[in-house]
Amino acid sequence: MKLNKNKFNSQSPLIMGVCNLTKDSFSDGGQNYRTSDALNNIKKMWEQGASIIDIGAESTKPGSDPITYKKEIKKLEPILKKIPKNKFIISVDTYKIETQEFALQRGAHIINDIYGGNKDLFFLSKKYNSGLILMHTPGTPKTMQSMTNSYKNILQDIRKIFINKSKELKKYKIPQSKVWFDPGIGFGKNLSQNLTILKNISKFKIDNYGLLLGSSRKSWIDKIDKSSTNQRLGGSIASVLYCLEKGVDVFRVHDVQETSQAIKIYKKIICSK
Q1: Catalytic-role residue among 75, 159, 232, 252
Q2: Is the CB of residue 184 less than 8 Å from the CB of residue 136?
Q3: Do β-strands 131-135 and 110-113 pair in parallel, antiparallel, or remain unpaired?
Q4: Is 218 assigned a catalytic role?
Q5: Which residues, in sequence order, are CB contacts of 47 under 8 Å at separation 6+?
Q6: Domains located in the chain, CATH noted
Q7: pLDDT tens, 207-256?
Q8: Known active-site residue 252
Q9: pTM to 2 decimal places
């Protein structure tokens, strides 16, 4: 895998392992709060098959409170200092411009922005030759779940936003191979809307930009089959395998080994005579 400034792995699909450094993230809150635990889990996910590790220092689950960029940077700093920069792709999950530039200065390859980025982030991406993950959400973590009625047509609305973003990206001459759009499962969507997005996931393929899915362990599974966050592996993998056939390029997951195995077996079955 080449991790230079110009090229990301062209293999598809890629598995992105989730590493939340917070105490209050919805699924793995507290598991990676200590730097040593985070580094051990990052190493484990890479060994299990993750090509990308997504590191976040602020919870963005529904209802969560924001933290300052200074607190975010303080939490990220020891991880970015010690994490290897040439074994896997490093993504940092942040929407704050100060944290975004800090992460890129210290070797991050991708910025994952839940608010879909803006001209300041696009300028940074061009400056540091970095990748981007641009997610859709209709509001902040505090307000987004009260905005599920804001859509006229959820598929058309999100697709239009992505098309407009793509026009902005072209102005900055950011390569399409370095950008992934994420429709934001669970971010300002109810169960019906989440299922509509999953069923029609291919509609969010814009030109040659990549497509990312983050459905792992989220509450949409619980609404179908009552389960705690660590009991949602089956639902998570079901969504991965369905969307794999629909052209999704990156899967952001908590269970790397199980997802990697599921994809390998599924592809073997499909390709068998």
Answers
A1: 252
A2: yes
A3: parallel
A4: yes
A5: none
A6: 14-271 (3.20.20.20)
A7: 999 999 999 999 999 999 999 999 999 999 999 999 999 999 999 999 99
A8: yes
A9: 0.93
